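thread: overnight batch results

M.L. [08:02]
morning all. the overnight job finished for the chain we discussed friday. pasting input first so we're all looking at the same thing
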Amino acid sequence: MYDLIIRNAEIHDGLGSAPVHGNLWIQDGKVAGIGREAPEARREVDAGGLTLMPGIVDLHTHYDAQVTWDPTCSPSPSLGVTTCVMGNCGFGIVPSPPDIRDTILRNLSVVEGMDLDALRVGTNWRFETFAEYLDVLAALKPAPNLAVLAGHSAVRTAVMRDEAWTRETPSEDEMAEMRGLIDRALADGAVGFASSFSINHSGYGGIPMPSTIASVEEFGRLADSLGAAGRGICQIAAGGRGTVEALEPIVARNGRPMFLTTGAAMYSASEPDRSIQWFEACAEARTRGNPFYIQIPCQPLSFDFTMANAYPFHSHATFSAIKAYGPDELLPVYRDPEFRARFRKDLENPVVGTIFKGNWDQVFIAAVAKAENEPLQNMTIAELAAKRGTDPLDTMLDLALEEDLGTYFLGKFLNVGDEGVGRLLKHESGVISLSDAGAHLIYMCDAGFGLHFLAHWVRELGHFTMAEGVRRLTSHPADLYGIANRGRLVPGSCADMLLFDPATVGVSQPSRISDLPGGGPRTIRQPTGVHGVWVNGTEVFDGTDYVAAGNGPGQVLREFAA
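M.L. [08:03]
and the structure it wrote out:
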């Protein structure tokens, strides 16, 4: 007798094949068979014609700290995700010698938009080394499967301490120690190595995150750990320096795939041909035997923010000294005409990689703090400035000051426009990813990227067939990262599954709840049309609530295909 049978489903295997209408049965966490047969099982689920697909593989999450207090990794499993890759951009939380732990959390609170009090209250430091961290994750019994990247900023901080973000060149002894940490992490089960050159990545008090000041040479010497190991991938937030041209010699040398994340490769209506050039550069590199890919989001890159925490503006030099200021410190700064003049000058000549470039018609007033300002909601700053006859920058800051920095703004800066974005999603160099799940919770929650993809790009626009859409969310990312036996439903594969109604699948609008440790707030979204999510054959979400909390079936992945 089998453990579970799901009857009467339209089954997509994740490999792009035509669907099978029938049953799927499971034994010991793996798919035992698919077809018209209906063997006996201890538990039965009648799908009633709903669609069954492999669970979504999310290559770009930041649950590194959250998982230590929330093994569910909420909200990802409820949104169809069964495998999460953590440690992206090099911002992991190991190695973690006790004397640098608060530094790690302070930097995370800024660079990834996390609640610092929640991090301090919630993070359970039962580990110091990478191997210990993986063991702790396994003991926590997470809901999803987890894979972890070894991080450049993490090892730089552990080795160089307070000079990690001030001294560009490490000593040879420091380089050897960092390389040794990466080598050991890969041997202990890291899925790869991650870093960042992005000018948007600053830590507490406006300091640059350590890897962002490192040389390409240093990055390459550490990335060569992948070549020595003969497996693993490299992920980097590319910034202005991490071009395919600059990084290709590293990939040519170590032979391992590199995945770039950069706003420059996201569609922008003001520069419609810029992003596709990155994708074509990756394609050309692959013809030379050097595997490059772009992690491309399938949603607009939108930021919900206040001027008390103006993350989209932090890449501008004017904000470098005030990123960690509290509201009381920011009020006089925003009133200062000299500050405003400097910000205007930044916008006239934005540095490559900046998120906001003065496009005020893409900054919306999302919510106001004062009742008399309710008529302003949903207006753009450009519209309000035209109505008042004032400069847009002054308009935004004056409104924020009037409401004691309580005004919520929504910036739709990148990846807006279905035709332009669709071209990137279909490109052979693109990997649908970059949810940033677990991060930027003050502003957004894109953990439901896969459900959005199924709703918008498959059902509504028809840019992808269901079979191809499912493949792009499952076996495609899993295979590129060497995550073996997942992202597919075939006999012998791990039974990670999502059951959904293709007519209603999607994701809700964002809402705010205060359930972080210490009562901290976060932005969250809910699934629609989801009827069940299973990880390794065990249900973790029943369409309404989590059902395996505290005893999750997720595995910590430590072995990957070469």
